[in-house]
């Protein structure tokens, strides 16, 4: 289980770096332009991904910044958001690397953003964390296409093939 999540963590950081490299080519105006996306824009969607990761990592560890609103916008510039994204990717990998094997099946008890108590197996939470990022990276990938850019390939296969 640990190796599986370490691979997903490494893939996740790789995909985020590729996507941020691509969106960095856009002007600030295009990054924040409202385009009908659920989180308003490319920048809004990238911010949402990080906010959600902060929430989940706080639930898993009890540490680090957290939020009560998935639409929080604590960053104004892509460079700042990107630095926080890279730090979060390292934090996720370190958490997975340090998690004892037996703890993957263990449950985490948490309160959601509406104040409701819940509990889930850590392996489900981690799977959700990575799947959630993939979902929203796909949205940003599409938004790059709409902007007339050629988005980078982000499939897990492209990450795994060089190591095969």
Name the helix and strand elements from N-terminus to C-terminus, one letter apiece: HHHHEEHH
CATH superfamily: dinb family like domain
**Tally of structural domains:** 1
**What is the total tally of β strands?**
2
- Low-pLDDT residue spans: none
Share of residues in helices: 55-70%
Name the shape in a single word: globular
> What kind of sheet is the major sheet?
2 strands, antiparallel
Quick one: CATH class?
Answer: Mainly Alpha
Our estimate of the beta-strand percent is 5-15%
Question: Which structural category do the helix and sheet elements fall into?
Answer: mainly alpha
Major sheet: arrangement of strands? 1-2
Spatial gap, N to C terminus: 19 Å
Q: How many helical elements?
A: 6
Mean pLDDT: 94
The CATH topology annotation reads as Four Helix Bundle (Hemerythrin (Met), subunit A)
Give the C-alpha Rg.
16 Å
CATH architecture grouping: Up-down Bundle
